Amino acid sequence: MDPAVRFAEIVNGPAADRNLDLLCALMATVVDHSTDVASIITGLDRLAEVCTPTFDGIVDSLFASGLLSGDSDDYHDYRNSLLNEVLIRRKGMPITLSVVAMEVGKRLGVPIRGIGLPGHFVIRDKASGIYADPFGGGVRYDEPGMVAAWKQRMGEGVRLRPDMLAAVTAHDILIRMLNNLRHSLIERDQSVLLARMVPLRAAFAELADERDEHRVWMRHFN
To answer: Does 212 have pLDDT greater than 80?
Structure first.
């Protein structure tokens, strides 16, 4: 099955949250034709093999150790939004690094939730409620500490509502990843890759108002 079609079927179905790794892998294969789903899933499996099966063990093994890190040098490099590139280059954006942690946790029986803060993305241990910042080297916070760190990052005048600390769904994560990717590709005038994104973004009803923009992206193929 065409990976874009498979992506659309899964992301809008009841199994989306159970298949975040597959959805991210399909997204990557649609944009980057040089990769494949199996290699991405295997890459996550291999990371899980080097982690202790606890929240602290996963965070320490992946991020505190420096095995994976945030790309502070070129934050908006589009490769930071593609899971295959994150696994190869060992660096990424907050959201893609968090997805790696979540999926490693799934493999080890450690439920890790994604927290989509405005302007940032972190993870939370379901059992203890402790937060960790993969982009920040895995530093841990309790809830007041997380709020304080976010305000320091964004500015004291910005209010963090309680609902902003809620776990987000795979659906929400993928839209956010695609938005980051869109921004990066437009900034770098990557017209071919933008055109490849069209079926991925078109899978979301929330993005239906982009159709005119999609036609512009596809002009190179007409």
So the answer is: no
